[in-house]
Every structure is written in structure tokens, then in C-alpha cells.
Design a protein that fits this description.
The protein has two domains: about 200 residues, NAD(P)-binding Rossmann-like Domain (Rossmann fold); about 35 residues, no CATH class. It is about 45% helix and about 15% strand. It has eight helices and seven strands, in the order βαβαβαβαβαβαααβ. The protein binds 1,4-dihydronicotinamide adenine dinucleotide. The site of 1,4-dihydronicotinamide adenine dinucleotide has 27 residues, from helix 1, helix 4 and helix 6.
């Protein structure tokens, strides 16, 4: 039986984060949905509550330490000590290196790396006290290199090193840390990429799917299924791993 533990999903208002939040709730977790604006979390929170689950929405910028401290404290007060953390919040600021600005670089590092660091540091206190915890970071196949994404690929590769270090440091406290590296997933993020490339989303999906062995692009639920495994009670001996969920092998 799955224990009634409290999970935090950052960037949970839409896309992959929303699917993960719904999936963890259906597995019996209480879920705190964190996103930049509390209002944006309302739909996901309502969907969870509609199926009898417990959820709250919190507005916080994961790259701001005061926001993170306040958000984690509120989760503890309203839902119970958070022992599951999914670092999912993310942004893109794509550009070829010669056109990439310092702002493009810093913004991506701040949300993905600083955000995951601040959230993990705040939540591990609860996990260590409980002697149980799960940290799951969203990396990407872009960690292996992707044209126009020097900032994003560096951040996503950085998250893999971060994950492995957390696994080493926190294992003795019953806390695992793993990463999922999705390939192409249909969300607002990839819809924006299609727009930037001047393609309809449908044409873009068809084009991308040609290079994916299973013959289709990913859905947020594909990632949520892997997230349910890594955050599950039974995954206690799986730590420091990076799972590519991309419809085929990666290299
Ligand atoms: P999305 O853009 O649809 O959703 C991201 C969410 O994060 C948004 O709700 C946004 O408001 C929130 N967010 C952004 N900055 C934040 C901040 N500073 N604090 C709190 N929340 C913040 O993105 P999507 O596609 O659902 O991606 C989720 C994660 O998966 C990201 O980390 C992304 O890099 C990663 N990923 C996505 C892939 C894809 O094909 N969609 C592929 C590989 C990785």
C-alpha cells in the first residue's frame, strides 16, 4: 500500500508538472503544486480535489530563496512535512551561442539549477527528519547537447551531476535522488519552440516523430508514469539514476 505522504511538484500548473501532480495524487499522495502564480495552479488543484485527493497551490519562484522557504513552510503547515520533491519547473531561452545573452544564460541556470538546489536544500530537512524521502529532477535529452541550447543543455547536464551527488549524500537517511531525462514531450514549452521555428505544432510533431523509434512524440503522462515509479515506496534501492524517457535509445 502507498503511504499518504506529502509531495511537492514545482512548475506543476501545466505540462509535465501537472501530469506528475495528478499522477502522484492518484497514487495517494498529498500534493503541493508550486508555480510562479498561485492562480495558475487552480485547475490542477481542483482536478485533484475532484477525485478525492488532497492538494494545495502555492505561488513561488523556485529561484528565489525567500519564496522557497515560505513555500516549503506553508506545505509543512497545510499538508504535512514534504518528503517527496519533484524539481520540474523549467524555462527555455534558446539561442545560438553567438547570439545568447547573459540574461538568457542566467535565467535558465537560475530556474533549473538554483531552483533545484534551493528546493532540495529546503525539503531535505524534512526528509532527513522522517528518515525517508524521494527527490526527482527533470533533466532532458538536451543534456547530451542540442543546437541552440548551450544554456539549457548545460543546466540539464548539471542536474544529472546534482542528482548523483544528492544520492550519495542523502542515501544514508533513506532518501533517494533520481532524474528523468525526457525526449520530446507535447507541452506549451515545445509548442513555443514550434512557433519560434515558424511551424504549426502539428507539422512540428510529425517532423520530430520521424526520428523517434516508437513513432510518436511523448505525452506528459509518459513522464508521469516514470515519476510515479521513482517517487514510489518500492523504489528504495534505486538512486542516482538518470532514466531517458524518449521513445528510444539515446547516446
Ligand atoms: P512548461 O513550460 O509547459 O511548464 C513549466 C512550468 O514551470 C510552467 O507552469 C512555468 O510557469 C513553471 N515555471 C517556470 N519558471 C518557474 C519558476 N522560476 N518557479 C516556479 N515555476 C516556474 O514545460 P514542460 O514542457 O512541462 O517541462 C517541464 C520540465 O520538463 C522542465 O524542466 C523542462 O525543461 C523539462 N523537459 C521538457 C521537455 C519537453 O519536451 N517538453 C523535454 C525534456 C525536459
Amino acid at each position: 500500500m502507498t503511504e499518504k505522504r506529502t509531495a511537492i511538484v514545482t512548475g506543476g500548473a501545466r505540462g509535465i508538472g501537472a501530469a506528475v501532480a495528478l499522477r502522484l495524487a492518484s497514487a495517494g499522495r498529498r500534493v503541493a503544486v508550486i508555480d510562479l502564480r498561485e492562480d495558475d495552479t487552480a485547475d490542477v488543484v481542483a482536478s485533484i480535489r475532484a477525485t478525492g485527493g488532497e492538494a494545495i497551490g502555492i505561488g513561488a519562484d523556485v529561484s528565489a530563496s525567500a519564496d522557497v522557504a515560505a513555500a516549503v513552510e506553508r506545505v509543512g503547515e497545510q499538508l504535512g512535512a514534504p518528503t517527496i520533491l519533484v524539481n520540474n519547473a523549467g524555462i527555455l531561452r534558446d539561442n545560438l551561442l553567438f547570439k545568447m545573452t547573459e540574461d538568457d544564460w542566467d535565467a535558465v541556470m537560475d530556474v533549473h539549477l538554483r531552483g533545484a538546489f534551493l528546493m532540495s536544500r529546503a525539503v531535505q530537512a524534512h526528509q532527513v527528519q522522517a528518515g525517508w524521502g524521494r527527490i526527482l529532477n527533470l533533466s532532458s535529452t538536451s543534456a547530451l547537447g542540442n543546437r541552440g541550447q548551450a544554456n539549457y543543455s548545460a543546466a540539464k547536464a548539471g542536474l544529472q551531476g546534482f542528482t548523483k551527488t544528492l544520492a550519495i549524500e542523502l542515501g544514508r537517511f533513506g532518501v533517494t535522488a533520481n532524474a528523468i531525462a525526457p525526449g520530446f514531450v507535447q507541452t506549451a514549452m515545445t509548442r513555443a519552440t514550434a512557433e519560434r521555428l515558424g511551424m504549426t505544432f502539428e507539422d512540428f510533431l510529425a517532423e520530430v516523430a520521424k526520428d523517434i523509434p516508437v513513432g510518436r512524440t511523448g505525452l506528459p503522462e509518459d513522464i508521469a508514469a516514470a515519476a510515479a515509479f521513482f517517487t514510489g515506496d518500492e523504489a528504495a534501492f534505486v538512486s542516482g539514476q538518470v532514466l531517458y524517457v524518449a521513445g528510444g535509445p539515446t547516446d
